[in-house]
Design brief:
The structure is a single chain. By secondary structure, this protein is α/β, with parallel strands linked by helices. The chain folds into two domains: 164 residues, P-loop containing nucleotide triphosphate hydrolases (Rossmann fold), CATH 3.40.50.300; 69 residues. Helices cover 48% and strands 13% of the residues. The chain is globular, with a radius of gyration of 20 Å. The relative contact order is 0.15.
């Protein structure tokens, strides 16, 4: 399965969706990041045609892939997809993460309109509600989006495709690990912590152990939630 994750809006959790939700549940999946950074390290807003051609070629050589499109590249990405007629058929799903906030909901609507304009069928599009406060009513919080989708008759938004707020998403940054890897880690960090205290290990080492204890405790519930969201995305 090949999935593209995109949104006209930044800071909606595209990397979280790519790295923690999708890739760990697609066997051998490669995450391909399309960002506004050239090989020389300089930022640019343009995605060149030859880069898109290389992406298409790469996708034809692998089974499972997640393509994470940076917000500044979405417009060019979709334009090139339209130029390469039928290239949207290379993808099984188009996942659009969104978060609470008027601007982000407007950008999400714009993204859905852009996908529709290039011929992506609604059956391939999934909206994932990200960083949702579990105490808030989902439909009311995202009223603008629900109203627009209902008014245009695009498709039914799946209220089960929800990733709630969880401190693990912030705590896991910089570890180089995914939530799936943390969840499967069988290391007894509590025993390691006791040994570290007894041996007088450096505080840096002990702090890392405490971090891993916290991550493992958080990972269980969020893994189950992500499993359910993944089913909503691929069904």
């Amino acid at each position: 399965m090949k999935i593209v994750v995109l949104s006209h809006s930044g800071n909606v959790g595209k990397t979280t969706v790519s790295d923690h939700l999708l890739a760990p549940r697609l066997e051998g999946a490669e995450v391909i990041s399309v960002e506004s950074i050239n090989a020389d390290g300089k930022e640019t807003a343009a995605l060149r045609g030859n880069q898109f051609a290389e992406l298409q070629d790469r996708l034809m050589t692998i089974g499972n892939a997640v393509v994470d499109v940076g917000a500044s590249n979405v417009e060019d990405f979709l334009m090139l997809m339209q130029r390469y007629d039928g290239s949207h058929q290379d993808f099984d799903r188009f996942v659009v993460p969104t978060v609470y906030g008027s601007k982000q909901q407007v950008d999400t609507i714009s993204t859905l309109q852009s996908l529709q304009a290039i011929g992506v069928p609604s059956s391939k599009i999934r909206v994932v509600f990200n960083m949702v406060d579990p105490k808030q009513d989902l439909v009311r919080s995202f009223a603008r989006l629900f109203d627009a989708v209902g008014r245009n008759g695009w498709f039914a938004l799946d209220v089960s495709a929800v990733i709630h707020e969880n401190p693990i998403f912030e705590k896991i940054k910089g570890t180089g690990k995914t939530i799936a890897e943390i969840s499967l880690d069988q290391t007894d960090y509590l025993a390691m912590n006791a040994e570290a205290i007894e041996s007088g290990a450096p505080e840096e080492q002990r702090a890392h152990i405490r971090q891993m204890v916290a991550l493992k405790r958080l990972a269980g519930r969020v893994t189950s939630e992500l499993d359910a969201v993944f089913k909503a995305v691929v069904h």
